[in-house]
Amino acid sequence: MSTIRVRSAASYWLALPAAAWMLGVVVVPIVLLAWVSLWGGRAFSTASPITFDNYTKFFANKTYVGLVFSTVVHTATLMLITGVLGYCIAYFLVVKIRRPGWRLALFLAFVIPFWTSTLIRAIAWVPFLGVNGVINQTLMFAGATHSPIEAFLYSRTGITMAQVSLYTMMAAGPVVYMLNAIPPQLREAAMTLKATPFIVFRRIIFPLTLPGVVIGQVLVFLNVMADFATVATIGGNKHALLSNLVLLFYEGSQIRAASVVAVLLMLCMLAGVIVALRVVDIRRLGA
Amino acid sequence: MGWKIRLNITGWILGVLTLIFLAYQWLPIFTLGVLSFSGPTGGTTFPMNGTSFHWYEQVWRATVMSDFKPPLLRSSILALACSATTIVLSVMAAQAMRGEFRGHNWFFYLLLLGIMAPGILVGFGFAILMRLLGVDLAWDTTTFLVHVSWTLPFGFLTMLAVFNRFDKRLEEAALTLGASRLTTFRRITLPLILPGVMGAGLFGFSLSYDEYPRSMFTTGPDLTLPLAVMAQLDRQLTPEIYAIGTTTTFFSLIAVTIFTFAFWAMRRSVDGRRT
Amino acid sequence: MPIKRRHLLAAAGASTLAAPFVLSSGGPSFAQDKQLNLAGASYDMRDAILQEFAKRTNITPRPWVSPSTQARVDRIRTAPVDIITVDAPFAAYAMNEKLLQPIDISRLPNWSKLHPLLKDGRATPTAPLGFGANPGRMMYLDEARTKASFVPAFFQMDSIGYNAGKIPTENNTLSWGELFNPKWRGKVALYGIDWLGMLDAAMGMRALGLINPPDISNLSEKEVDTVVAFLKDKKKEGHFRAMWKAYGELVNLMASEEVWIADAWWPVVVEVAGKGIPMHYAVAKEGYRAWCNGYGIAANAKNLDACYEWLNFWMEGFPGARQSEIGYFSTANTYEKYLDPKLVTEVYGGVGRDGGSLEDRANRVFVWNTRPKNLEYYTEKWNEFLAA
Fold first, then answer.
1. Number of compact structural domains in chain A
2. What ipTM does the predicted assembly reach?
3. Which CATH number fits domain C160-286: 3.90.1150.10, 3.40.190.10, 3.40.50.300, 2.40.50.90?
4. What is the pLDDT confidence band of residue B3, given thresholds at 50, 70 and 90?
5. Which of B107, B244, B248 sits opposite A19 (nearest CB)?
6. What range does the domain containing A138 cover?
7. Do A152 and A125 meet the contact criterion of CB atoms below 8 Å apart?
8. Of C304, C301, A8, nearest to B104 (Cα)?
9. Closest among B83, B111, B74, B31 to B221, alpha carbons compared
10. Nearest Cβ partner of A285 from B22, B31, B160?
11. Which of B16, B20, B45 is the mutation pick for testing A, counting most A CBs within 10 A?
């Protein structure tokens, strides 16, 4: 028994507002975008003929198809870096730090920057990476280089560096949660049975944290694919990934092309999430 | 004893890595904070040319083109409204999931769609929808709707996790003792899930406060704070933007501290009552 | 304790129900009447001008800023706009799309004070007309010249801005091709919006002899392909440090000396020089790229009288003087009473100023900013360049 009868009418009523909200504000616009991407003609009118021309035009363009791939590669790189880094940090925080006071303090230290705007944090990287920026000044001061390294700013490297700083905690967070749920006696029990720490990690701890890893990766994936501001600001307006392309076409008032890219972006995200959901069932979170 | 040494070394390596990353994450923000106190002729990188509150004064002084106070106010009101709406809707939705109604799997994925869909898409699509319907875009109507669609799934997941850990037997006890479902929910369930509710509220507030891709398309003529910051980026990049960054960070921290304190206080009162 | 929790729950419930009402009851907003919705750019929506306008007319200006003229024109479709900052070719385009309404010249008493370059399309009866969209030719909507698509407000002839400490020149003259000189690899910034960036790049390529289009302001598809292919190669070599869209961005780039040469605008030169960096504006060897910005009235403008107030305010001289301070020429010669006489001789007379006087510059116009007929193709290829 619980406060809600299983399969009762009350649950439908409770679910209705949220469902209606999401349907109206998310589903309908996405479907609309898909429809607009199929519009022929040039005017903004609902009477436009339906055609696949916009898609054929997009895929006929080698550069744009290449862009889809380079966006995926860039995202995969970020996922790898943040995944490994995030796991190390999470492991250190949960397993290696004994005193809960320290653990809380460190955890807060990591989480607090999150509560500042992502935009500000991305902007903060510009004075850092530039030719006269802090990193270059430190390197030159330490004598490591003679002239400033230009590759840090307005380049893919710079974008990756900034995004690692922005999103690693997203990869680490769910892992921390899952690691916390593992009772420490499990490790001890395994070790008394003569398992080396490496085996303990590989066969017990890592599989138990796998859901957290996957969730973290999904979060990073979603955020990196959708992130246009960092790419534009730190890339110096020179670089464009798939999300930037939507905006570029939108600003050029080419709604059809923008919708095509938007639909492609959505399909990529859906594909990624579906793969992830096969691996882990997040409805069992916390159970 | 070999593996004990290896454990220690691993511990050290991980520790150093963690601390390096901590610095990596904090340094830009720290630099931002330091540079915001630049002298009046300071640029956006070192040297600072003296220290002053000049840039904070600039932020405070309202001019037609760069006035941050209305956007700050709008963002705060919007975030509070989002937070409240998210709390109510996510508790309702999570409770509905417990009822395991037919189609609750689809419902779950429907809500997840809000997290999955990139902000630009939702904003862009919604703006086109409004254009087709002839509805004017405004920060307090269309942007509010879109913001909630972003924060609600996070609140929903939080409440789901809380309900998953929730001990149903407490409700059962109350129900067997004759309390109505509503009373049980109000007096037993709610107090126990309140920390989760605070979490959902916190998500609602902070996610809405910092949100910009959805806002970009749906605010109409009035800007929210992140949009005002982005507009300022287009103009000259002066330490004024660092002052804004530091100020908004400060406000975020205050809001989070208040929420966390409330969370902690409620947790303590709930735990206190149990023993 | 129970009391506190109950209050909290009640508050949460009430605020959810009340939220829509609270929000829609206004929040921070100006008085609804006496407002003017402007769609402008960062180089004209400037505080001094806006504040003076509000002071004189008691109308509250509400500016919306975007560096892209196309984006501003599109905004008329989706948001309330009264006045839009536009140039002649885009005004013609917007007229075609029924987004602008004709301006009645008889309501503008200072129209006769317009510089002949704008009023008639040439500085003197024998000066060259220049390729592209000449405003003096394009803005009139009828033979009798009683209606215009936009009111010219300020203009300039653009060339190349460069850091004189790093780049040597002879007599402050640079060819447009200097933008692509491999010596400055990694220190170049190019304008990032499609039609203008493409035009500047085409000017550079023409100076280097790489292309020779009959009308450089209206490149054919094949010519666009050539330009973009060249740009993509340059990008791969790392020739460009960054692309810039709003003049503040370029100021930062040049003031921090990350960029040494760019297809800059006058206000950039003024500001960077003011920060102590020796930035100069070159005389263009092949001729300048001229442009003229002004104001059009949106088709669905709400307050027509306020619009004419704005137009007359701009022709009266105060804004013209303020724009002169950042290096633009005022189209109406009413600015002198608001401008320091020394600046008048500097800016208009060319005394101690790069590039000479207004007359010198007006006589060396090669091309006018134009909205190309196949802008969509430009956008598609330009986005390719950015995506590469």
1. 1
2. 0.85
3. 3.40.190.10
4. low
5. B107
6. 61-284
7. no
8. A8
9. B74
10. B160
11. B45
Q: Where exactly are the structural domains of chain C?
A: 35-155+291-356, 160-286
Residue B34 contacts by C-beta under 8 Å, 6 or more apart in sequence? B48
Q: Tens of pLDDT along C373-382?
A: 889 899 989 9
Domains of chain B in sequence order: 63-274 (1.10.3720.10)
Chains that touch A (3 or more CB pairs under 8 A): B, C
Which SS3 state, helix, strand or coil, does residue B71 take? helix
Spatial contact of B204 and B155, defined as CB atoms under 8 Å apart: yes
Q: Considering the domain boundaries, does residue A239 fall inside one?
A: yes
Q: Cα distance from B109 to chain A (closest Cα, Å)?
A: 10
In angstroms, the separation between the Cα of residue B160 and the nearest Cα of chain C is 19
Length of chain A: 287
Name which of C16, C47, C277 to mutate to probe chain B: the one with the most chain B Cβ atoms within 10 A of its Cβ: C16
Judge whether C96 is closer than 8 Å to chain A, CB to CB: no
Cis peptide bond prior to B47, omega within 30° of 0 = yes
Domain C35-155+291-356 top-level CATH class: alpha beta
Name chain B contacts of A259, Cβ cutoff 8 Å: 124
Determine if the pTM surpasses 0.80.
yes
Q: Is residue A116 part of a domain?
A: yes
Q: How far apart are CA B38 and CA B50, in angstroms?
A: 6
CATH of the domain at A135: 1.10.3720.10
Q: Rounded to an integer, what distance in angstroms lies between the CA atom of residue C227 and that of residue C219? A: 9
Question: Which residues are C288's β-sheet partners?
Answer: C365
C118/C344 Cα distance (integer angstroms): 19
Query: How buried is residue C345: exposed, middle or buried, by Cβ count under 10 Å (0-12/13-18/19+)?
Result: middle
The model's pLDDT over A224-265, given as tens digits with 9 standing for 90+, comes to 999 998 998 888 888 889 999 998 888 888 889 999 999 999
